Amino acid sequence: MGITSEKRHFSKELQLLLFFLNSKYEENNLLNEKERFADINWEHFIQLTLHHRVYPIIYKKMNVIKSNVVPPKVIGRLKQYYQKNVFQMLMLAGETESISRLFMDQNIRTLFLKGPVLGDHLYGDISLRTSSDIDVLIPIRDLERAENILLKRGYIKDDYILTVLNDWKWRHHHITFIHPQKKIKVEVHWRLNPGPSWNQPFEDLWTRKKQSRISDFPVYILGNEDLYVFLTSHGARHGWSRLRWLIDIDKLVKLDLDWNCIKRLLKQYQLTPVGGQALRLASDLLNSFTPLELNDITESKKQRSWLMELYFTLNK
């Protein structure tokens, strides 16, 4: 059975979700797609939007539908989640700028990885992507100073890391801090992935950085090519269990990327299969763009077998 056949066994709710998330979705197509809305378990559909963290996108698309194919109570539920996320992302955006200021005052260079900066950079709107924390990458030599800055700001360190012969800096890749009053979590990274994965040196990432638009004050993010490598390795590490990570890929590949640079980075850090997985998944599930330069890493029997296993998991 081929991969396309496997997708036909998705639940009607998952198929409807993918319909709205399709890279080439157009509202006008709804006139010919009313059958998709028949016999939908709307509670299950809402739970899928929450699990995959895509309810802001779904709400914005459903809210402008002029026909009555979606029950008003469903749109109302999604609106509540959307509005809560708007507040959350605005709060995280403000704290991101504050942390950038605090660290820069102490000459600590920062690269913000996800959160509001990613929502703005990929979606053009921080409210269209969900996030529960702030992830910031710094040079490992500045880790102790960064910790002291956050502690003085009222954060509490989450001491879950067990140190054995002081190898924690190699085995782990971030420390978590929680602000009890603001209910904000900050993860301070000194590497992009936990050991023993290959990691790009901070200095290389810094030379290719971009400035975020979420603030007039300098807030820096990964360059597009490094962002692709990071997002694909992160999604693969979590088994692509949330569609939001694939939507990130779909948004990113539409930007002006140096695909030869990406191919070189994937090979250098032994992530070529991962880079291929991301493109193949985004193409199959979201009808996303696949660059010609990377066609050769998306097609293989091993990829097909792995994708069919993932589709089975997605449909649970």
Automatic annotation (TrEMBL):
**Source organism of this protein record:** Mesobacillus boroniphilus JCM 21738
Concerning InterPro entries, the annotation shows: NT_sf, NTP_transf_5
State a single Pfam family of this protein.
Answer: NTP_transf_5
Q: What is this protein called?
A: Nucleotidyltransferase family protein
Q: Which Gene3D superfamilies match?
A: 3.30.460.40
